Amino acid sequence: MSRIRILSEQLANQIAAGEVVERPASVVKELVENSVDAGASRIDIQVEGSGAGLLRITDNGLGMDGDDVLLCIERHATSKLTHEEQLTAIATLGFRGEAIPSIASVSWMTILSRPREHELGTRAEIRYGILQAVHEDGCSRGTVIEIRHLFGNMPARKKFLKSARTEMHHIEEVVKNQALAHPETGFTLQVDGRVVLEYQPQADLESRVREVFRYQSKLLPLQPDGEGDSGEMTLDGYLLLPEMAQTGSPRLRLLVNNRPVQDAMIRHAVGEGLQSFLMKGFQPAGALLLTIGPEQVDVNVHPSKREIRFRNSEAVHRFIADRVAMAMGGYQQTLRTRLFASPVPGKTAEEQGAPPYSQEAAPAPPVMNTAEPVALPCFPPRLAMSSHAPLPVASSPESAVAPGPPSMIADLCSSMAPVCGAVEDFSGLTLIGQLFSLYLLCERDGDFMVIDQHAAHERLLYGQLRQGYLAAKVPRQTLLFPVTVELTPVQAETLEQRQELVATLGLEAAFFGDTTYVIKSVPAVASQVEPGSLLREVLDGLRGPVSRDVSRPVPQAVDALLASMACKAAVKAGNRLQPVEMLHLLQQMQASAVFSHCPHGRPVLKTFSAQEVEKWFWRHGG
User: Fold this and answer.
1) pLDDT at 396
2) In this predicted model, what pLDDT tens digit does every residue of 1-34 receive, in sequence order?
3) What is the pLDDT of residue 556?
4) What's the CA gap between 390 and 396, in Å, rounded?
5) CA distance 512 to 514
6) Region of 480 on the Ramachandran plot (φ > 0 left; ψ -120 to 50 alpha; else beta)
């Protein structure tokens, strides 16, 4: 007797259900995708408990007649693929014909559907894969699929479900992803009779992104405008500004040809595009829509269709990273216009801004009516530690303040350096002064701005070091008195192996004897840093492999060293700047290609509107 048997249809469906139906959210995903493929403009999801008790998906799509209702519960029955050539260029969300029969095999399913041209609909009832009844019934155009007792015939699978809150979180994620993929469609999610999510049909992706992320601040657009797009790929979407993408914040949602997916390569490409703008531990957040030829992507990789493969993943990675970097360049230009451009009546900063900013060129700094500024890249300590008289405290009855702790008032007054006793105008920006020997306070068009002097200077120095490295001409400063340094055997070996790279970074060190080396020159921007510690840090950073990547002109290990060198050389917290130094720092920011974030991702400036400041003192509304 043969030991090999053909599986029954019921058992085959239950095996397929183990791959397709992982949890209640999987059911919602599959049925919502069917509704989208049916052209629905409105999709309502109702859930009771954790979803195992009741799931009901209602849409106003094309609907099905009686024959189609019976066929859809058969395995591998689908209207979306008609010949095998379509399998290499799938353009629909569903295509296997496994979802409905697989779900029906592990639940009580009821299907009620009516096409527009029919007066009556069809109701079919299936109990754990067995058709119980089918008859005509009155209903609206579209389809209603109701799932009860999910995994009722598979208690072992039901035990693997998590808490109701966890299962609801996964269902909400499915609805949010589908809402982003199809902004023209309205979605409603009800849980135990209470509306949890409700998304009205939107005319554009930006409105849907703000709706899903509940975010009203500035977004970084990735809108396809033809520039930089290839014939086979376009990139659309919106990212939250890097400083808003905190750990635990809304994640980056990926859409490929309007299909929500999970892809580590795309996430990595977005991170590369945001290189030096994201703080350590932060992840990009927002919604990214990649449109690519169906023949260039394989979605038939996993039964859940969440994983995909690209025919040329390297080209896709490079394209996404470049477009994200271009978007950040455009943001720099908009921010520069908002900060420094002379105000134009009736025009917003975005309307005054030029096309996305080029990384190869920067605008010429304006001519300033002031004394010759202290030249960057660094502020010598003897000039940066200038002292200023404290701000006078008002004593007239009209401007008197309530008495407070004398030390607190004295500390505040001594920590804020006035600019020559008055404000200074700089290219539309009014410089007020320095706070806590760390922040520059400015005003422009009713906005109040706080600039971190260390972060701003660090970004400027990093840009100079990076340009010098790419040109193999990092400016050096020869030491008047060479410095000797003791290296460990590992550091000495690294120096011997990386001698040329170390020289490219602006350091010149020669063997002196045993484990002693003599440092003859250092990078000009880091001339204030102790040479021995600088050399040791560079050698420790170059100890591992320095990989070359076409999409990353500066190797990651070298880039980290440049950022560290810039941080050590930048003006520090506690350094009092003279007015001419503050103005020159602003001048250099305006002339820099990138200035919004330090190379470690910290924001350089924060802007508060007049309305926000008024709220601090409860002046709004009155």
Assistant:
1) 33
2) 566 666 566 666 555 555 568 899 999 999 999 9
3) 87
4) 18
5) 7
6) alpha
Residue 283 and residue 515: Cα distance in Å, rounded?
A: 43
H-helix or E-strand containing 170?
Answer: helix 164-181
Question: For residue range 539-548, what is the model confidence (pLDDT) as tens digits?
Answer: 999 988 777 7
Judged against a pLDDT cut of 90, whether residue 532 lies above it is answered with: yes
Tell me the Cα Rg of the chain: 32
| Mean pLDDT score of the chain | 81
Using 50, 70 and 90 to split pLDDT, how confident is the model at 514?
Answer: confident
Beta strands 42-48 and 186-191, pairing class: parallel
DSSP alpha helices (H): ranges in 38-136?
Answer: 66-72, 99-104
3-state helix, strand, coil in the chain (%, to 5): 35, 25, 40
Q: What is the pTM of this model?
A: 0.79
Name residue, tokens 């940066």: 384
Q: How far apart are CA 106 and CA 51, in angstroms?
A: 13
Beta bridge partners of 511: 517
Query: 243-272 burial by CB neighbour count: b if 16+ within 10 A, else e?
Result: bbbeeeebebbbbbbbbbbebeebbebbbb
* Alpha carbon distance 311, 164 (integer Å): 40
Nearest alpha carbon to residue 94 among 74, 80, 113, 82: 80
Q: Are 122 and 116 in contact (CB under 8 A)?
A: no
Cβ within 8 Å of residue 591, ≥6 positions away: 362, 363, 364, 365
Q: What are phi and psi of 142, to 5 degrees?
A: 120, -160
Written as one letter, the residue type at 297 is V
